[in-house]
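Handout, page 2. Input:
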Amino acid sequence: MVVGLSTYAVVWSGIHSLGGYTTAFQVHFGVVLVLTYARSFQNAAKVPRHISKLCYTSAAFLLGGMVMWLMDQFLCGHLHSLPAGLPNPQLHAVWHVFLSAGAFYANTFFAALKGHNEGYVVTMHYSFLLLPRFSLSKTAEE
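Output:
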């Protein structure tokens, strides 16, 4: 499934970069995310809450990013002419920030999931109250 989705994503990225098709690309990107997260949520249901929370946080960041991207795409004319001289909020840039945060949480989730599945005790830590990291030990006492 991973190879298939990756190939699908690369092909659509190529089509998008060569010919535009922004709305079609957004739909297909959303399909890849839904398929990927459907599988991830199945895995998240089988692990302790402190690990599964990473998966759900990642999905929330990516969903928020998709909303920002779609708003930027479809409301572009309105965003360039906001009242009272307000600047364009640059929602496409916000999309990139949200996507990066979502990818960071997803990578941390999959690494912690692998440690859990290999029998390690996963202890979560947060840097700056936001950035997750974890440590592995063979037993809870280590």
